[in-house]
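A note from the maintainers: we've had questions about how concatenated examples are separated. There is no special marker in the raw files; a new sequence line simply starts the next protein. For clarity in this README we add a label.
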Amino acid sequence: MVKENIGFIGGGNMGEAIIKGLLKANVVRANQIHVCDIRKERLAYLQKTYHIQTTEKIGDLVGNVHIIVLAVKPQDLGSVLEEIKDKITPQQLLISIAAGISTQYIESFLPEEIPVVRVMPNTPALVLAGMSALTPGEFATEEHLKVAETLFKAIGETVIVPEKLMDAITGLSGSGPAYVAVMIEAMADGGVKMGLPRPVALKLAAQTALGTAKLLLDTGMHPGQLKDMVSSPGGTTIAGLHIMEIGGIRGIIMEAIERATQRAQELES
């Protein structure tokens, strides 16, 4: 368990996902979690659902926690940092999940050597199946990274990468759920075209995607090996794969990730 109190500035969907994961994994107790949000109704919901501590005042939160998670929108981060910069101390850990905001940008607001860890989670964190990439700021130690990794393992898997790779992480796993959702939707549409009821087609497509991902992760099998395993000579799968190759699906997906990475670089602060 993490012994320190944890404060969330921002109580939106991703903040709630992390809170839910921490409590479900018994990483912290409910009374160790503090949340600050400008929406009174949101705070009331979080307090009632998770029995955590809530406040509308950022200063009260910062003064009562050791770990601060910045879970606000990127465009709001600057104003939040301005508000907390004179309240936070080097004994605290600042974790940011704001997409496209560098540790250098965050550190530029802080008058002291505050440890900062930047994290890029993704939306499957909402069902505790997320993929989070972590990178340390200039003053974050291995111990700070371990603490942050412990928190985000509660909502899925983690990797630690150099900050220069975070834009590629955004393009792949950050944006990736949208790409996978489009493929699942297309597979379901194909099933409907062939006569399957929509709910049945969607369940078949989604579970197939889930099961395939689990098979690859659990066995360490290369995707090409799995593809060959399913493709019988002269069979149905290779006929379908032929059409996918004609359509250039591999190149399209690679280009999508490349363009999303480039866009992340354009937005990088």
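[label: protein 2]
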Amino acid sequence: MLYQIKAYLNFILKSTNQHGVHSPFVYHLVSNCFYDKTNYEAYKNIHNHKKQLLKNKTQLIVTDLGAGSNLTKQRERRVSEIAKNAGTTLKRAELLYRLVAYFKPNAVLELGTSLGIATHAISLANPEARITTIEGCPNISNFTKANFEKHSLKNIHLITGNFNDAIEKLKPNPYDLVFFDGNHTKEATLHYFETLLQTAHNDSVFIFDDIYWSKPMTEAWETIKKHPKVTVTIDTFYWGIVFFRKEQLKEHFVIRV
């Protein structure tokens, strides 16, 4: 926690808004997506979905295949507790909705479904997208799959299992957007990045969650920024966003959202 506080103070000192951006591509993204103040009708759906989860007292036996929770190591957890401590925040879900609506990705891959708050937002933003999401814990996966069916989200394919095994089978497929939201360790993050680079094209977007989760996670983010295939990155503190656009000069932006 102390590391994250120091990292956030450093972020505040370095960060800017759209007026500190000289790339037209990033300027338009920040102005028209990040800072879009429209109160979309879908936000109500996203909020109601999370509200239902926060009220749900169902007990699940949780199997953590990644770094786990910073707040609890208990194996038996209520859905409400997972939604509060590990689920995507409403602010991030709304930004993810705007990003998907802005870029309109057809093929989406998410590593780390959890309760499906982020997946739900992606589906609402582009109902035509083909969304593949992977969850390591069988009990959470079963709960979330039933919840997707309850909400009639028919464009989501949920895979239960180890990320390494799943992405090895998926990597022949190209993806327009990949959301990395599971196993917050340096080694795993870099392995997933290198593996899924094979699925990226010029207009693909990679989003890494919790890049300041720990010092090793920040080190992973710094390594990703330096990769020769990466041209533009945006650090929003809680997310690191990566672009591969060959027409762009290599630049790194730190943006307050």
